Amino acid sequence: MKIKLLVFFLLSFVGITKAENPGVLSGKVKNKATNQPVQYASIVIKDAGKIITGIVADENGAFSIKNLELKKFTLEVEFIGYKKYATSIELNSAKKNSSIEILLEEEATELQSVDIVKEHSMIEQKTDRKVINVGKDLLSAGATASEILNNIPSVSVDPQTNAVSLRGNSNVRVFVDGKPSTVSASQLLQQIPAASIKQIELITNPSAKYNPEGMSGIINIVLNKNAKIGFNGSVNSGITFGETPKTNSSFDMNYRNGKFNLYGNYGLTTGKHHNHGKIETLEPNEENTQNFDFLNNGTSHLAKVGFDFYLNETNTISVYTTQNINNETGKSNVNVIYNNPAANINQIFNSKNDNYTQTYNFDYKKSFKKEGHTLEFEANYSNNDNEENSSFTNPAALNDITNKGENILLNLDYVNPLTETIKLEAGLETRLENTKNNFLLNDAYNSDFNYERKIYSAYTTIAKQWKKWNAQVGARFEKYTADALFQKVNQADGTFNDDLFTVYPSGFVTYTPTENNSFNFSVSKRVDRPSIDQVNPIREWSTPLIDSEGNPELFPQFTNSVELNYTRKTKIGSITSGVFYRQINDEITRTLNGNPTDPERQILSYANLGDNNAYGVELSGNLDFTKWYTANISFDLYNKKTKGYVETDYVEVDVTTINSRISNTFKASKNLRFQLTGMYRGEDLGLQFLRKPMWRIDAGSSLTILKGTGTITARVSDLFDSMHFAFDATKPKLQTGEFHWESQTAYIGFNYRFGAGKNKAVQRKERDKNETQGSGGF
Q1: Distance in angstroms (rounded) separating the CA atoms of residues 655 and 659
Q2: Are 478 and 456 contacting, i.e. CB atoms less than 8 angstroms apart?
Q3: Residue 599: other Cβ atoms inside 10 A
Q4: Which of 87, 104, 156, 399 has the fewest CB atoms in 10 Å of its CB?
């Protein structure tokens, strides 16, 4: 069965066709009991027992095989969990086109495990994205989404702050199941268990269908959603040993029966995290050393519950809710040492943060008679409520900050295949966002900040397929308004207003000269609108010499991107290479400036710099060198030119950064694997800082037990304790510093999969996957 399915899968990509054969066979594969489509069933055409051609049904169970000879054939259809189907088909001059409905019967035999996870992760280059199907190697590489992403090509996660960057740029949006989250990316990535992740999608040049925010693009984390009849689930639990133990557990379940599908995910993370570091100021007559020690103790609950109701073959309703509770206490000790001991400062900072975020989503999809002709409406509401209570010593102060936010998203998508090779997509979207922050100093009102923005969008794309070419062009039209009001005691009110209308064009061309070679070219315009953290002038955190706060006068930055990718399939795997260029207007960047009211203090904030550009090359591959040794390898090189003003000084830098990763998997037996991974991140130069190189080596292993339903994973991270953040700064002061965290850790975890459901392809809405539909190769 496995060998046949592999052959069928490969045949679906082989264009062994002859233009002179006029016959066409099309149809749809369905479940005989439920009348629901069977996704990705294997269809093969035989002549006298010999395989002539084959194809795989699409997500709607539909297929079309062209260029068949006019004669009699045997049609065979197979899919895991169903009985094999076979029938005779005859095409002749009077009946060149034939359509058939195939009803598959379910097998009585039940599968024991819920998830079939590949041995190693597979990287696919699609029209508008790179898709990493998470395998056992990545699952054993980390306990959380943060650690998983740090092992993905082109992605970096700062271990100190959990800030995410894509292709060397931190202006990137992180989605979960195709939806933005009101939880910050740095917090969210720590809360998603690795075992709950199915795919990571890197959308570096999104089409006009998607929100244009994020200069570097979109990172979409796709969570597991079971696809079997009956009740199935998995339990995952692990402990990370650093200076103190940290736990990470998750539970996934799915119940599918007839027209109803219920699913849920729950993740729990808890533990203490210790960081420490120092900054030395070398500026003449201002020499000092700041020693930092941070200890945070947090507990996070992240749950998602939803259901899909298939009213009939053409109407589907889906509802889900995500609930996130995060509680954290922190204690920091900052010592400032001067040449004059009498001036030394020792400040203790205690904080308590309680954050509650909830999201509610409704989706309705209507499918028309024509294959691929759909209308989909989505409504999404989320809110967050955060409270921070902090106390400082030297000088003594109490800070109480509340942050409340609401987001409403309404979206309407329409898809119409005008012909077999031309497809039209169009849509409307409304996004309403507002945030209210309030700051009490020593139990008395100090300031508040209200920020509201509205975005009204419309988009349209047209896709065309011909022979070995696919093309798609489109544009997104957006009306954007933002209003902000900052009020503070003894100060005049500060207001900010922005009103823009912008067109965001995009285009894609794919050329597939052979089965093993594919080229993809894309262009797009994108925008980075300031986030609430970047514009909020209420202090984010404070030390004796540094205050972190936003800049309400920030305005959006725009980016024009060009990208070319080439994918080559070989006998041992696939290799993808690419080049890109970005032209950036009014780039937003982190700044560190002197405090105008206190020369010894500095303000860490944001500012718009000048127009900059960047370009780079990437190379990645997943290769099966032998039956027992596989490797995922990635390399990227970026060059960026940055210019702008630091306080009153004009600065211009030109830097090339190199990053590389390799993940080696050694299969000792059917159930036992070992893994050795390494990463290197080259130095990076900004207008104010030079970040020094970083590297690490990890080792791990996994053992499958209980007849394939259980997996034990063990891992040691940063074997040589080499990973830390170090920098040199020249402006506004001559400084050097470094920070350390619990990088060297040991992890042991156990994953158990249960349930006796039969495999069934469950249709998943395109918007939930955040994936471009397409004509032919799109």
Answers
A1: 13
A2: yes
A3: 9
A4: 87
Q: Is the separation of the CB atoms in 208 and 475 below 8 Å?
A: yes
Cα dihedral 202→208→211→212 (10° resolution): 80
Nearest of 275, 298, 284, 332 to residue 546 by alpha carbon? 332
Q: How far is CA 416 from CA 232, 405, 424, in A?
A: 36, 37, 5
Q: Are strands 122-125 and 72-78 parallel, antiparallel or unpaired?
A: unpaired
So what's the pLDDT on residue 767? 38
pLDDT score for 11 = 42
What separation in angstroms does the CA of 691 have from each of 278, 281, 444, 565, 737? 15, 16, 40, 29, 10
What pLDDT, on a 0 to 100 scale, did the predictor assign at position 673? 87
Write down the residue that tokens 């006068």 correspond to: 553
pLDDT in tens, 524-544: 888 877 777 777 777 666 777
CA nearest neighbour of 139 among 520, 675, 724: 675
| Coil, strand or helix at 194 | helix
In eight-state DSSP terms, residue 128 is: S
Count of alpha carbons within 13 angstroms of residue 497, beta-carbon side: 1
Question: For residues 614 and 653, is the Cβ–Cβ distance under 8 A?
Answer: no
Question: How far from the centroid of its chain's Cα atoms is residue 699's Cα?
Answer: 25
- pLDDT, residue 113, reads 36
- Positive or negative CA dihedral for 148, 153, 157, 158? positive
> How far is Cα 649 from Cα 688, in angstroms, rounded to an integer?
11
Which tens digit of pLDDT belongs to each residue from 235-245?
888 899 999 89
Which positions of the chain have pLDDT values less than 50? 1-20, 108-117, 227, 757-778
The pTM for the full model equals: 0.71
CA nearest neighbour of 157 among 736, 696, 591: 696
- Asked if 751 and 234 touch (Cβ cutoff 8 Å), the reply is yes
Enumerate residues 6+ apart whose C-beta is below 8 A from 287.
280, 281, 338, 339
Q: What is the per-residue pLDDT for 225?
A: 61
Task: Provide the residue type at 606 as one letter.
Answer: Y
Token pair in block for residue 760: 């069934």
> Helix and strand tally (H, E) in the chain?
6, 45
pLDDT of residue 539: 67
> CB-hemisphere CA count at 13 Å for 653?
18
Four-residue CA torsion sign, 168, 173, 177, 178: negative
Residues 6+ apart with CB under 8 A from 195: 139, 234, 236, 250, 252, 751
Which residues in 105-188 belong to E strands, given as ranges?
122-125, 130-133, 155-157, 164-166, 172-176, 179-180
Q: CA-to-CA distance for 442 and 557, rounded, in angstroms?
A: 38
How many whole angstroms separate alpha carbon 167 and alpha carbon 153?
Answer: 9
How remote is the C-alpha of 406 from its chain's centroid? Answer: 22
Residue 770 main-chain phi, psi, to 5 deg: 55, 45
Query: Taking Cα atoms as reference points, which of 626, 523, 599 lies closest to residue 285?
Result: 599
DSSP state of 530: P
Contact 103, 78 (CB under 8 A): no
- Altogether, the residues listed in the chain come to a count of 778
366 class by beta-carbon count within 10 Å (0-12 exposed, 13-18 middle, 19+ buried): middle
Distance CA 523, CA 131 (A): 19
CA–CA gap between residue 647 and residue 637 (Å, rounded) = 30
CA triplet 557, 583, 633: central angle to 5 degrees?
105
